[in-house]
Amino acid sequence: MMGHSHAVSGALLFAATAPFVPPLMGMHLQPADVLMGTVLCAGAALLPDLDHHDGTIANFLGPISKVLCQFVAWVSGGHRHATHSLLFVALMGGGSWAGITYLGRNFTIGLTFFLLAMAIKALHLHPPGDGPQGWITVMGLAALGTFGMLNWLPSAPGWLPYAVALGTLAHLLGDCLTKQGSPLLWPHKERYEVVLIKRTGNKVETKILVPVMTLATFALLLWSTAISPTVLS
């Protein structure tokens, strides 16, 4: 799937599950939490593609992200290997929880900036191209967005690790709809797939799946932020 599609799928899953799953886990979400979580989950849905030096997010932070992607690809065994597994989902969720719990506010702010920058890049909310104009704009918008969120962002938001893990999982599920599938049980090498998208960027993905997911996300956000406060708080 394309990066844009992954981001939308992450947003959709968070918006759909926010009224139900976090309360079951003892988390109490306000409408602002749901909105922030939806955006950051969209960014987290690009995390598995940190193993792809030419992927959508390879240049989202310019030379920094380029080097990062090359390193992750080398460590993980290349594109669609270790980072496309359930183990990686657990590592991202657990690592986010540990960072927020033990490193505090600064880690939360840094993680928010990182995820927001990926969301901006994947959703094409910046000038086209991968040159300095593009990634400098992404960084600037992510910094402004992070600063804007600080009024509502708790020092240790319990929903943020959930958003990271859910976004990462959304990516894996999306790739399972393509021919190459995902090695969900890595290091076991078998790839799991139910092929609905025969070619990345085809009409099924761009003309059907993405518009439907986008409309569904907005509808779910309107619903989940409007329902009784006893569900969200």
TrEMBL record:
It comes from the Bacteria. Pfam families: YdjM. Keywords: Membrane, Transmembrane, Transmembrane helix. The keyword Transmembrane helix applies. The chain crosses the membrane at residues 57-75, 82-100, 135-153, 208-227. InterPro entries: YdjM-like (IPR007404). Coiled coil: none annotated. PANTHER family: INNER MEMBRANE PROTEIN YBCI-RELATED. This is Membrane protein.
